[in-house]
């Protein structure tokens, strides 16, 4: 390597080190809603949503109000379709190959006529260029809202969103 090549490398390396940035904090998203419905009705609606969306169930425990999914395949990372669902972690020069999401839902009675449904998601994406590992991303809130809206529609089938008025 010549002195000129070394000099060029020394000039390029410091600016590249600045390209690695911290990931912005996850956005605040709606993860739970309290429905005016008894536990059994909200539970049945939530289970029906998993079935209708064809979410593979890993665990279901009515007594504790828990439903968790097997990993759900997401669109290829880096595409517009993927960006509606999740945000990738920061990995300099990362090349993303696959992504999935696991969902855990808790259905909890608040009182005899109100039930809280909480949706938690975990996003993972496989980076093949630098690390060759799965990395945790985060949800944009689309998954959570899709589930909560679907439960709401089951409980109040003629609900008209004020956002469309």
Features:
28% helix, alpha+beta, 7-stranded antiparallel sheet, Alpha-D-Glucose-1,6-Bisphosphate, Chain A, domain 4, 165 residues, two-stranded antiparallel ribbon, elongated, single chain
What order do the helices and strands come in, and which of them pair?
Layout: H1 3-17, E1 32-35, H2 39-52, E2 57-61, E3 66-69, E4 72-73, H3 80-83, E5 86-87, E6 96-111, E7 114-127, E8 133-136, E9 138-139, H4 142-155
Antiparallel strand pairs: 1-7, 2-3, 3-6, 4-6, 5-9, 6-7, 7-8
Helix pairs in contact: 2-4
Nearest-integer average pLDDT = 85
CATH topology: Alpha-D-Glucose-1,6-Bisphosphate, Chain A, domain 4
Q: In total, how many domains does the architecture comprise?
A: 1
Number of helices: 4
Structural class: alpha+beta
**CATH-scheme architecture:** 2-Layer Sandwich
Overall body shape: elongated
Proportion of residues in β-strands = 25-35%
Helical content class: 25-40%
What is the CATH class?
Alpha Beta
Distance between the termini: 68 Å
**Could you tell me the number of beta strands?**
9
Radius of gyration: 21 Å
SSE succession: HEHEEEHEEEEEH
In the predicted model, the low-confidence regions spanning at least 5 consecutive residues are 13-21
The largest sheet, given as strand count, sense and whether it forms a barrel, is: 7 strands, antiparallel
